[in-house]
Amino acid sequence: MGLYVLDAVIWVLGIRGHIPQNGDFGPVPGESSFGAGSGTLMRALAAFVVTVAFLSLALWAAVWLAIKLL
Question: 16 CB contacts (<8 Å, ≥6 apart)?
Fold first, then answer.
């Protein structure tokens, strides 16, 4: 089950297939380093914001439940 969740997260973030294999670490000709990373940066920022929002909601729900049970 854990591998399916990890696979889904990788698919949502759009990083599947971007892991270099067989020594393909060289730069791509004709691509600027600034323009290529902006989409990845925005995707990482969106993933961070969603994670923080989800954790905040989970914490709020836990505190609300604890108050209701007292």
Answer: 10
Alpha-carbon Rg of the chain, whole angstroms?
Answer: 19
Give residue-wise pLDDT tens across range 5-24: 777 777 777 666 655 556 55
Q: What percent of the chain shows pLDDT beyond 70?
A: 61
Please check whether residue 44 is in contact with residue 9, taking contact to mean a CB–CB distance below 8 angstroms. no
Q: State how far the Cα of 3 lies from the Cα of 7, in Å rounded to an integer.
A: 6
Q: In terms of residues, how long is the chain? A: 70
State how far the Cα of 20 lies from the Cα of 26, in Å rounded to an integer. Answer: 9
**pTM tops 0.85:** no
